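Query structure, 304 tokens:
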């Protein structure tokens, strides 16, 4: 045999997880196909290819994690814990993907680290989720995915065991597994100076195409805050305040400039004020910023 039995098990696990993640991407594509219909076929295929590579990188991480923990548990003679371990891993994956689909339906962007900020008030967040989504159906789908994926993974590892193979075969098997995993994780199938980068998903100005190329778990990690993320630089705010105030057409008042505010007052028509006005109050509780003129929406939805 060219490779050991356990190495073949590793590659089967790798192929299963990679296929599972890419199927999730195809489901997203089918869900958002109406938003992507205007995109060029080449852009759609390239986004799927970029996404396939991001899925491969995540697969490399998950496969190594699952394989090594399985090895440790088996060495400790605690194999009866393995089905629960597999189900836990796939439950967490399903949870992130379910949150990603819900987040995209709400924000029109793939899941970001700031989703944890939405859960500051747990009761309010839970109430919003319950009212906005079919929670029962989502939970059932997650449970089915968790159960089936756990079963398949358990089946893959059924052939695990020590076999009489030469040291040369074992060494070659280990080398092949390491090189293959590193190659897929690198993400450039033609080796270049830089590995696959987060920015590679943003090759198109079409937001739906970008979303198609992103892996939600990868994106969740890439958007996590750093120690400098929330540093408020007052001097920089003061320096750029005139530029931002001019762009927003804020009133150049002492109060605005002193307190770094962007208030803008529009004087009403004096003739119309003498009669009873017809006042319309518009409350934008869940304003979709991506559909405003400020964010380059072509329909000029917010011209003022």
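Result returned for the query:
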């Amino acid at each position: 045999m060219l490779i050991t039995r356990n190495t073949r098990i590793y590659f089967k696990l790798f192929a299963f997880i990679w296929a599972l993640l890419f199927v999730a991407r195809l489901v997203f594509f089918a869900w958002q196909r109406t938003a992507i219909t205007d995109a060029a076929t080449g852009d759609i295929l390239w986004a799927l290819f970029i996404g396939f590579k991001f899925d491969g990188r995540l697969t490399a991480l998950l496969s190594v994690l699952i394989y090594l923990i399985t090895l440790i548990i088996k060495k400790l003679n605690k194999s009866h814990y393995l089905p629960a371990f597999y189900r836990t891993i796939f439950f967490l994956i399903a949870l992130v993907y379910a949150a990603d689909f819900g987040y995209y339906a709400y924000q029109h962007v793939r899941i970001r680290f700031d989703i944890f900020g939405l859960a500051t008030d747990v009761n309010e967040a839970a109430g919003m989720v319950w009212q906005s989504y079919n929670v029962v159906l989502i939970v059932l789908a997650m449970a089915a995915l968790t159960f089936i994926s756990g079963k398949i993974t358990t089946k893959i590892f059924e052939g695990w065991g020590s076999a009489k193979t030469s040291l040369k075969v074992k060494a070659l098997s280990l080398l092949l597994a390491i090189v293959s995993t590193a190659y897929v994780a690198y993400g450039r199938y033609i080796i270049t100076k830089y590995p696959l980068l987060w920015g590679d998903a943003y090759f198109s100005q079409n937001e739906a195409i970008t979303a198609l190329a992103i892996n939600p778990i990868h994106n969740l990690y890439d958007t996590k805050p750093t120690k400098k993320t929330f540093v408020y630089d007052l001097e920089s705010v003061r320096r750029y305040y005139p530029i931002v105030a001019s762009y927003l057409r804020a009133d150049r008042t002492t109060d605005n400039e002193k307190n770094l505010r962007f208030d803008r007052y529009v004087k009403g028509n004096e003739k119309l004020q003498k009669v009873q006005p017809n006042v319309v109050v518009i409350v934008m509780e869940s304003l979709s910023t991506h559909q405003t003129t400020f964010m380059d929406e072509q329909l000029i939805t917010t011209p003022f």
